[in-house]
Amino acid sequence: QLEIDGQSPLIAMVLGWTAFERFVFVMSVLEGYAVRECAALLACTDQEIIATKSRVLARLAEGSWRAATVLSSPRWNALFAGAQVA
Fold first, then answer.
1. Which of 13, 43, 51, 64 is spaced 20 to 30 A from 4 at the CA atom?
2. pTM exceeding the 0.90 threshold for the entire prediction
C-alpha cells in the first residue's frame, strides 16, 4: 500500500477535505449521528449535511477500493470502538 508522507492513502485523502467535510464524515458515517443531529451540532441545514455526506462518500468510493477495505477492517473498527490495537 502506497504511503504519502508516512500516512495511508485513506488518511491523506481525509486530511485533504475541508474541516466541515471531516466533521460530517466522522459524525454521520463513523459515529452514526442522524442528519438532523449533525445539522444542529454544526449549525447548518439538513441539506448541507446530506450533500456533504454524499460528496465525501463519493470521494471515498472514487479514491480507491483500499479505502473501503480499510474502513471495514477489524483494526479500523477497533480504533473507533476504543479497543487496544496491537
1. 51
2. no
**CA gap 10, 63 in Å, rounded:** 8
Rg of the Cα atoms in the chain: 14
49 contacts 38 by C-beta, under 8 angstroms: yes
Reduce the secondary structure of 8-30 to three states and give it as a string: CHHHHHHHCCCHHHHHHHHHHHH
Give me 75's grid cell: 483494526
Beta bridge mates, 4: 7
SS3 content of the chain, % helix, strand, coil (to 5): 70, 0, 30
pLDDT confidence of residue 71: 58
